[in-house]
Amino acid sequence: MLLRDLLAPLLPVHATGDDSIEITGITADSRKVKPGFLFVCLTGFTVDGHTFAAQAVEKGAVAVLAQKDVDVPATIVRVPDTRRAMAMLADRFYGSPTRELKVIAVTGTNGKTTTTHLIDKILSDQQKRTGLIGTIHMRIGNVTEEVKNTTPDALELQESFRRMRDIDTEYAIIEASSHALELGRVRGCNVHTAVFTNLTQDHLDYHKTMENYRHAKSLLFAQLGNEYDPQRMKTAVLNADDEASGFFATVTPARVITYGIDNPADIRAVDIEISTKGTTFVAHTFQGSVKLSLKLMGKFNVYNALAAMAVGLAEGISLEAIKSSLEQVQGVSGRFESVDAGQPFAVLVDYSHTPDSLENALVTIKEFAKGKVFCIVGCGGDRDKTKRPIMAQIATKYADLTVLTSDNPRSEDPQAILDDMLAGLKKTAPDRYTSIVDRREAIGHAVSLAVDGDVILIAGKGHETYQIIKGEVLPFDDREVAKEAIRGQKNE
Fold first, then answer.
1. Which helix or strand (DSSP H or E) is residue 248 part of?
2. Which residues, in sequence order, are CB contacts of 139 under 8 Å at separation 6+?
3. Helix, strand, coil percentages, rounded to 5, for the chain
4. pLDDT digits (tens, 9 = 90+) for 81-110
5. Would you place residue 204 in the very low, low, confident or very high pLDDT band (cuts 50, 70, 90)?
6. pTM for this one?
């Protein structure tokens, strides 16, 4: 595409140099530049892309998009905001793929991954071609790829959507994180349906206040468009039991479908029963009522199922078909995932890394545990410090024994993180918790104490297969480490 054609949507814009050159690609990473590329200078939290403009040109960039002065031998395109401009250029360069896709975006503190997978199951079972982008991976067709962020940047996102459309994908189901919404990664995405799961404390190191966090989430609903095309009606699916939903309903022009348990809703679950085999409930909907028997455990998974059900009904799928799909789901990687190495007690690995998600997991376990409950939990480094003592308090409130340990300490001292957690336990009986910095040892300690009927929850990392310590990414999978500990216990 010619540079001048690519720049057509931008205002204001000032180009110095030849704007008739052919642009063969766009990137904001100087390491990925190839001859003919446009290099976008982004100002980040720790790195300023403007300092890499010269390096990008040396590697073959023929044009540079900047919001500051840069002196390089290439065409320079000056705009007020390169991040905003990049979203527009990404959409244009890749041929506006979301005009041809139905994008279903799920946002919320907890439940995004499970909800997207449930939606994917419902649609796939109706022979709809789907693509999936989220915390665990990206799937385009039958190809699964790793992801760096829950929601990729605008360039990668639009390029992924284009690849989906090139193989006739109908639906793109994505997780929309608050960071992504705040940073404009989904700008230019023609979202078809926006789903809200819940809003609880997380990411306050970035958003500072819960009001700011709520505002970031609201952007997804405000961006649903302001027209009522009968061929592409936009839908906002909101959790009636979360007070933030009222705010989201006021900022979106889209039709609203609510779901919930405790409050009146368009789709509501009653008669909920939770056991070690799963969860049963009756769903009353605007299309009738149905009883479901899920293999997934917990009240939080009832919410996830209701949200997915709302999307299915909005897409015209029958209640019976939705029931059939949801009842087939065995589970989602790292989400209340059972670890079985032949032990007489239960071991569950869960991604719960927020106070609310940890409480949900432990409350569910308490409903079916016949013996003691052990909780292994930590808090990530370089992240929201205010939730650390709260996480410790919640763990010790519900678990018979809590083992505080490391969880991706990143650049921080692991012991310092544990000290922050321990600060919340000054009034807690010392026999209800212990602190073991090494996560492998912490898991082994809980395994050594568990007996028949007990339940061990290993919280925080879920599907992750690594530990980040002092900038080094080390192999670590809670599920595999737990199995090793169990086997080691048997051999003693």
1. helix 244-251
2. 131, 132, 133, 145
3. 35, 25, 40
4. 999 999 999 999 999 999 999 999 999 988
5. low
6. 0.87
